[in-house]
Amino acid sequence: MKEPIRLNQTNLAHLPSSIARPGYDRSKLEAGIIHIGVGGFHRSHEAYYTDELLEKTGITDWGICGVGLRPADRKIAEVLKRQDYLYTLIVKHPDGRIENRVIGSLIDFMLGCDDPVAVTDRMASPITRIVSLTITEGGYNFNPATGKFDFKNPEVKHDIAHPDKPSMVFGYLTEALRKRRAAGLAPFTIQSCDNIQHNGDMTRKMLLAFAEAQDPSLAEWIAEEVAFPNAMVDRITPVTTAADIQLLEEDFGVKDEWPVTCEPFCQWVIEDKFCDGRPSWEEVGAQFVPDVTPYETMKIRLLNAGHSVLGLLGSIHGHKTIDGCVADPLFATYLRRFMDAEATPVLAPVEGVDIEDYKDSLLERFANPNIKDDLARICLESSSKLPKFLIPTITENLDRGGSTDFATLVIAAWCYYSDKGTDKDGKKLEIVDDMKAELHKAAAGTPRNKLSFLKLKAVFGDLANRKDFTDEYVRMIDALYENPDIARLMQAQLFGRE
Ligand code: CS2
């Protein structure tokens, strides 16, 4: 076997011909975009669209500078630096076909924890016109029980008192905007790319709460001048595995320390609301619309909630991946019934989208056997996902007297999962969640108080007080604690009582 070629700028020209690579001159690019949170999803989505645009148009002002705020981002910082910020996007088709492309839109990376001033200076440079974010659903510091910014967070207290030494995203954004205002510059657009309904509005609300506490006149300026477009983002991007790195090396002859794998499907629907210009991403498939709400709701309540339904039920059953779940007819049927009976009735029509086709396509995407999306990734940080993905569907159905039973079993399963930390056969499940201890404590109280788990107001709001929900929940909890064979309960749900 020939020695694999290390991925970097000098070696680009020598890569095997089966690997697509940037045809544009990266040395001419300027970073009009700063992106905070360079995980797999940013690299398979915004960086991918931008790479396509640079390739198609030859424009030079919309390169991307990545930013990591925390010490945990050091690894990606170092890998990208060694590779001149290049990485391979491995697109895996359902029929086994693989397309590799080296992405060139990322041209720099900065670590905020090493030098926060350098990062806010860069954000305040006139070259920067968009700061985009993938900071996860939990990164917005939003308290679902109060609907407000969480000022109890010690990091918030620190950042309010130390504007020049921020540690969280809101501290960075506020400081950078302060510098821009002082320099007489227009502000940048803040563009959220997280799976949160009205992600732009949410970012605005949280940033204004923070800025108001630190500098009320600046908050006023932000409220008037900064644009926060809402967007729906979509591309399934599993965690990169050692096998992906090996595949690239052995089958394609490229040594890339941290490639990204993803499905072929890709979607980005954005509100056209930018305060200092934007790339013409519509030239490479993004859609600009006046109101993104119906697209976001549809995606979050079908795709993301669908993932959580499979993730929690599947974990207890002993499935490992999303495709493994949907290859099991019971799980595929259950998912479809959840979508049809509970998610669809609380969705508004989406212009140009046939909702039945959309659901069919989700099941096909989930079935892609080459994606192997781990249930552990799906269940990660469920405490910040379910309040956005699933609980609104439950409460809206309760309000309109609709069905909630398919979703209720998922909440009961989540309680069992948080309490026992095992599947139905007692095999340990790795739970990763910022609220892991609280979830466990509340769930472990179930034998004494059946509603103990639901009393976590920060997750469930006032679901514990809704008798129209709790009666069925308690029945499911009883059944599950008596016998955790989740398939039996799913069957009962689908085909009638046990
Ligand atoms: C997943 C998402 O995190 C999750 O639970 O549902 O990461 C999902 O794969 C993406 O939103 C797809 O666009």
UniProtKB/TrEMBL annotation:
Its EC number is 1.1.1.-. Keywords: NAD, Oxidoreductase. Residues 32-282 form the Mannitol dehydrogenase N-terminal domain. Gene3D superfamilies: N-(1-d-carboxylethyl)-l-norvaline Dehydrogenase, domain 2 (1.10.1040.10), NAD(P)-binding Rossmann-like Domain (3.40.50.720). It comes from the Bacteria. Residues 291-480 form the Mannitol dehydrogenase C-terminal domain. One of its GO terms (molecular function) is oxidoreductase activity. It is an enzyme of class 1 (oxidoreductase). This is Mannitol dehydrogenase family protein.
